[in-house]
Amino acid sequence: MITKKHRFSGLITPISYGIDLLVINVFAYLSPINFQNPILFHTYISIAWIIMSLKIGFYKVYRYTKVTNILIKLFTQFFFFFLILYAYIGFFKQPLMSRLALAKYFAFVFVAISILKFLNYIFLMRYRERVKGNIRNVVVIGKNKMTNQLINVFKDRTEYGYEFKRQFCPKNGDFDIKQCLFYIANNNIDEIYCSVSSLQNEELLMFIDFADNNLKTLKFIPDNKYIFSKKLKFEYYDYVPILSLRDIPLHGPINAFIKRSFDVVFSLVIIFGLLIWIAPLLAILIRLESKGPIFFIQKRTGIDNREFQCYKFRSMAVNKAADELQAGKNDMRVTKIGKFIRSTSIDELPQFYNVLFGNMSVVGPRPHMLKHTDEYANKVDKYMLRHFVKPGITGLAQVKGYRGEIETDSDILNRIKFDIFYIENWSFFMDLKIIVQTMLNAISGEEKAY
Asked: Where are the transmembrane segments (predicted)?
């Protein structure tokens, strides 16, 4: 099975947000600013801080970010924060507010958050350098001046947290791309860095397909002779330019935090508002019609190709083929109550426990049985890309009509096409739209809801 190491670095940004918001509000509470409506002021500065940080990219500090870039972000953020602070006096007509106390408050906040930001930056650097935590194993494809510079960066700048494993030279006569890919697949390599000028187009495509299908991050060391038609992410490691082929929105800590927060709140609403009373009723109906457990628990493939236990209300008679054979039209295994709960998608409601536990999301690519994951990974190009994010109770492919039984090759191909589109173009509003459409489909009924 293809695996990918889980990283906890996604928690750094949300925690930093929380600490900084705590600092600006605690200092405001302790400072003798003399504002007339404390709740209004605290709400105002908190919302303003979040909006500014999103626009400026204040928390977008990566392992290779330079100190000068952090300083620029700090001064930019606090320049606008200063303007917003004093704008509060005019916007909300606060003649009694002390301008001097507001200036002192601004200075204290600036110093405190600057110290915290650099302490966090230094701590992470030392953590990677000395403890060897949050390390990413990398290989470099190609041998030229640029690749040599990059390898030196990996070796010398250990605080970046990259472990250089091996260099492959395509222009050597003994280079075998299949052996190279085999090495990457079997040595826990996280990221592949390809020199564009060292590879032929066919070899580039092979690396792209391999990375997509094996959950590896692929980045390019550019050459001026090549121009790519796709939208690429451009970054610098020290002074070496790097191109990333695919930028997944949900890999950003802020987007991930927003999605996870929504998942927790929405799942709690469904669990306590619906499941708490409908589950006992369904339990009685399911047991009256057929013997067996109330819940059907099945191993499925989740984020980073990790297995998890997926929950559903049992809609079939107990059978040995449940983990291998999808339900088809007029399937004799489906019970009478099962037919109803499947047609209305009520059988999926226990998956909100999966969402609460963190195995799934409300919206995302539908999780497949382990057997199907192994089958389609070898059959469908870029199939494994769908495992870059958590699977969902519903998804873009499902509201576009590709749910339920896979009858033809076009069914799975179109499903993967929509899954990849969702992964690469995620937005919170897209999630809301998919949820609304799912509810409408459940009410009106769907052709393949059997």
From this structure: 12-33, 39-58, 70-91, 103-124, 264-286
3-state secondary structure of 241: strand
**Structural domains of the chain, count:** 3
Question: 186 lies in a domain?
Answer: yes
Distances (CA, A) of 429 to 28, 436, 442: 33, 11, 20
Q: What is the pTM of this model?
A: 0.60
Q: Tokens for 79?
A: 């320049």
Instruction: Give whole-number Cα distances, 300 to 137, 321, 370, 374, in Å.
Output: 28, 15, 5, 11
Domain assignment present for 390: yes
Q: Which of 253, 235, 273, 286 is nearest to 352 (CA)?
A: 273
46: which strand partners? none
What residue numbers bound the domain in which 184 lies? 136-247
Indicate whether 450 pLDDT > 50: no
Which CATH number do you get for residue 170? 3.40.50.150
Q: Which string of DSSP letters, residue by residue, matches 56-125? A: HTTT---TT--HHHHHHHHHHHHHHHHHHHHHHHHHTT-TTS-HHHHHHHHHHHHHHHHHHHHHHHHHHH
Q: What is the pLDDT of residues 172-213, one digit of tens each?
A: 777 889 999 999 999 989 999 999 888 888 888 899 999 988
Domain endpoint, select from 131, 160, 175: 131
Q: Are residues 306 and 402 in the same domain?
A: yes
pLDDT value at residue 365 = 94
DSSP β-bridge partners for residue 243: 220, 234
Residue 114 identity (one-letter amino acid): S
Cα distances (angstroms) measured from residue 118 to each of 46, 121, 137, 177, 312? 21, 5, 26, 43, 47
Distance separating alpha carbons of residues 134 and 424, to the nearest angstrom: 25
Any domain includes 13:
yes
Q: For residue range 73-110, what is the model confidence (pLDDT) as tens digits?
A: 899 999 999 999 988 888 877 777 888 888 999 999 99
